[in-house]
User: Which sequence fits this backbone?
């Protein structure tokens, strides 16, 4: 991680940090279930919890999840990731990602799922804080 990407304790205080983070560790996660059957997948349930907490905190929801001993992923609302991209002057995500939509208690949500490393290296500290 580059110096410009490193976060300090000051960055991570409640006022500065823009995300409400929900983190999940699960024995087995079928990440492609979010494409095959988005209305009935764990990620949707986790997203609803994350989004509900984020609304209360007036922050952007960020869902972090991984399967035991596997790659970590993050999920963000499409509108929030577009906001971060504009702030970072990024025209297109140059990494693999999954885009999916499902109905939630908040309406129709579209989320982007990408690898944690891709998120950290794409969005610098300056573009997030």
Assistant:
């Amino acid at each position: 991680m580059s110096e410009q990407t490193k976060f300090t304790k000051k960055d991570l205080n409640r006022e500065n940090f823009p995300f409400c983070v929900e983190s999940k560790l699960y024995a087995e996660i079928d990440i492609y279930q979010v494409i095959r059957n988005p209305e009935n997948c764990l990620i949707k349930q986790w997203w609803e919890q994350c989004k509900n907490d984020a609304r209360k905190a007036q922050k952007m929801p960020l869902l972090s999840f991984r399967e035991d001993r596997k790659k970590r992923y993050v999920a963000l609302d499409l509108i929030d990731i577009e906001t971060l991209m504009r702030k970072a002057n990024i025209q297109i995500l140059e990494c693999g990602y999954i885009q999916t939509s499902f109905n939630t208690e908040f309406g129709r949500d579209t989320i982007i799922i990408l690898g944690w490393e891709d998120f950290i290296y794409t969005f610098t500290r300056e573009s997030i804080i």
